[in-house]
Amino acid sequence: MLRKVCAGLLLLVLVALPSFAAGQDMFPGQWWRLPQAGEMFSLTEKQKLQLDDLYFKNRRNLSALKKALENERARFSAVMEREPLNEAAVMAQFGRLEEARTQLSAERVHYILELRKLLGQERFQRVKIYFSKLRDKKSKMTGTYSPYPTKKRGVIMSPWGITIQRR
What we know:
The chain is 71% helix and 5% strand. The chain is mainly alpha-helical.
């Protein structure tokens, strides 16, 4: 019995971990609406409107797919908790859970592909590099991606780059 519980918990952890990693957005929010973005990436007003349309369509789709994924996770947990354990039912539900995760990932890739087509190769690379440098800078400033403040050698550092000297 203990083996089954441990195996179930391990399986649940293995199922949950990839979703946390996939949850990080490559391009956060409506970055093209930042005042400097139009100039920095040579975006016209028409392109900004197209990016708005793409973003809102993607958000609706992602929301529905995330909800479907959560429902499949809940069903998976319920099947794992049933006694007696039905291995065939667990594997069938696991397949549905993986399909939901695949659909969510495919929607994210579809958004990036549409973004790439809209921006073109050169501008897409500039945007990618810009956000990569921004993430690196944030990581160096905070030492972590945690939303909670961290302490380092007498200085309180927040993930937003705010430092407060301790007395």
